[in-house]
What does this fold into?
Amino acid sequence: MSILVFDSGIGGLSVLREARILMPEHRFIYVGDNAGFPYGDWEEEALTERIVGIFEGLIAKFQPKMAVVACNTASTLILPTLRAHFDIPFVGTVPAIKPAAERTSSGMISVLATPGTVKRDYTKKLIGEFAREVDVRLVGTTALAQFAEDYMMGRPIDETMILNEITPCFKELDGRRTDIIVLACTHYPFLANVMRRLAPWPVDWLNPAEAIARHGLSLMQGVEPDDPNLEEFDDLALMTKTIEDRSMRRLLTGFGLRVLSLN
Ligand code: DGL
It folds into this structure.
């Protein structure tokens, strides 16, 4: 029995990193749907069908004790469907609008996400529920997740293009300006240092990974830990498309994951 951590690509490693720190006694299986990456522009019905199909296979094969959907684009779309379909606890990753609204001093926050996350009813609901008094700017970007993957794999990135993607997050109005940017895609924390350096003014880049891991930990109270002496205790990375890219393999093995192909 393991904990599944799922994303469209390798961004969910930002959540896995925190989950392992808080739950070292549990074994993890990281699943990256690299064949479907990027999720940002997928049509909702097709994406729902795809992810439910992947989970059907995963749950039958591994009987996990919990699944962490380490992807905002997926979580804001299919959490209720997954919970209705499968009898295991699911932890989702949704834009950290509530903590940002509670912490902002200027009353102006931005949510940096994929176009999919930005257009979801779920995201609008979060704003209506928790940030009605706050000026929330939603910024959807198609390119940034790929830039994050490139950066993580040691490929060159174009900083001018990154600056162009993040510039709409910075808003000034009547002497006030954006002071918090919610990283609402699990890929973006890996670019945080680059974005911090390029930013027109200092802001708090809110990374929800630790909070997600804490939620997972709360659901694992009283659940039997895995036996670290078993060979199968090794954490795995399962990708939906065979990795031909040496740098991706290197990144995953560098995270201590034994890399296998899902199919
Ligand atoms: N990491 C995913 C998220 O949190 C999205 C990356 C993508 O597939 O575009 O939204």
Residues 44-62 form the longest helix (19 residues). The mean pLDDT is 95.
